[in-house]
């Protein structure tokens, strides 16, 4: 089953270009510069009536939802957010008729997400599922939605499912945008960007050795920050989560913008920071954050597609350029490799991290 791979996590990381191609297959329409998502069963009039989008999921599926919310706001200009399904189900949520609720789950069996979906249905909410496992409880509860086509994911730490979830949500955002004010030119730009993703993910994976060397340099660290702004923020959260899950090294994700409002007090030469630095409108802000960290002797690992000033970061994990809206999908990949190789260096049992299960189907 493992083929030539050392473990399922490594196998699934390397399956991403193929898994992504499957998620995109038959779903991009060049002529109308939009996405074709047959399973959502909504006509343009119904899509236009949506006034808000809320994504619900747990763990990596929740972080993918945060990426999706950003995409929906950018491409469709509809207010959107993500919330852990585990919180939503217990807080007697206000369910609105013109909100589209989207349940996200690789397994389709996570109890918290299933319970959130059931609560929504009971209150008459409009619900879609974005699920990997066909025939799973959440897929059945939602009735319509998007299948991930990632193939079976065995490793507890999610990799290809998160990539396919974020990509599916980019297609949903594109569709919502194109029934509103997203221009044909911008739609075409996103369609072309989505088509480039599988090859670009392969390009990142080809640099695995370089990422492994950086990870090895930081393997004796006790604690790390992961920071990013706006599109980079869910990337930072997902990167920190991966590291915690499989290496047991403490990692805390923070908005780069909030660092100076508290956690900067913790930065010294024992506390490295991974920072997400896309070449976008926030580049100078992120360079400023790196300088603040360096001034306190903190080591900096930059995940970037920008040309940073020589020697600014102690290490760089390189990412190819695509449309800025799609950056989170690509920037997540080197952090999977980083967590994987740091955990491997520490001799952890990568496919069976302590205290965790692949899908949590109990209270
Ligand atoms: C957690 C797993 O319990 O469930 C995570 O450890 C996963 O890796 C999360 O992201 C959500 O799972 P699913 O199947 O609902 O996407």
UniProtKB/TrEMBL annotation:
The keyword Cytoplasm applies. The keyword Repeat applies. This is Glutamine--fructose-6-phosphate aminotransferase [isomerizing]. It comes from Allokutzneria albata (Kibdelosporangium albatum). It is found in: Cytoplasm. The chain holds residues 245 to 607 of 607 of the full protein. The gene is glmS. Its main location: cytoplasm. GO terms for cellular component: cytosol. Its EC number is 2.6.1.16.
């Amino acid at each position: 089953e493992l083929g030539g791979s050392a473990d399922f996590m490594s196998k699934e990381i390397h399956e991403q270009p193929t898994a992504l191609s499957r998620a995109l297959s038959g779903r991009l329409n060049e002529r109308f510069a939009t996405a074709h998502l047959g399973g959502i069963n909504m006509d343009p009039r119904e899509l236009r009536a949506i006034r808000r989008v809320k994504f619900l999921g747990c763990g990596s599926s929740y972080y993918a939802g945060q990426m999706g919310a950003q995409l929906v706001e950018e491409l469709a200009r509809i207010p959107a957010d993500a919330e852990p399904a585990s919180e939503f189900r217990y807080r007697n949520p206000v369910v609105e008729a013109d909100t589209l609720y989207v349940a996200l789950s690789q397994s389709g069996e996570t109890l918290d997400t299933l319970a959130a979906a059931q609560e929504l249905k009971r209150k008459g909410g409009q619900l879609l599922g974005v699920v990997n496992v066909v025939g799973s409880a959440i897929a059945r509860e939602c009735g319509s939605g998007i299948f991930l086509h990632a193939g079976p994911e065995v490793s507890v730490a999610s990799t290809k499912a998160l990539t396919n979830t974020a990509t599916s949500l980019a297609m949903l955002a594109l569709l919502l945008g194109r029934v509103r004010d997203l221009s044909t030119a911008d739609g075409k730009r996103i369609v072309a960007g989505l088509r480039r993703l599988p090859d670009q993910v392969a390009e990142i994976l080809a640099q695995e050795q370089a990422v492994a060397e950086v990870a090895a340099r930081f393997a004796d660290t006790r604690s790390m920050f992961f920071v990013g702004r706006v599109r980079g923020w869910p990337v930072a959260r997902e990167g920190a989560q991966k590291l915690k899950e499989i290496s047991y090294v403490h990692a805390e994700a923070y908005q780069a913008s909030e660092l100076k409002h508290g956690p900067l007090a913790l930065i010294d030469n024992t506390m490295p920071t991974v920072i997400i630095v896309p070449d976008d409108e926030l580049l100078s802000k992120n360079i400023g954050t790196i300088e603040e960290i360096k001034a306190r002797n903190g080591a900096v690992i930059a995940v970037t597609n920008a040309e940073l000033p020589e020697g600014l970061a102690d290490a760089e994990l390189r990412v190819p350029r695509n449309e800025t809206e799609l950056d989170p999908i690509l920037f997540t990949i080197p952090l999977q490799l980083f967590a994987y190789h740091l955990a491997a260096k520490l001799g952890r049992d990568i496919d069976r991290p302590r205290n965790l299960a692949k899908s949590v189907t109990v209270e």
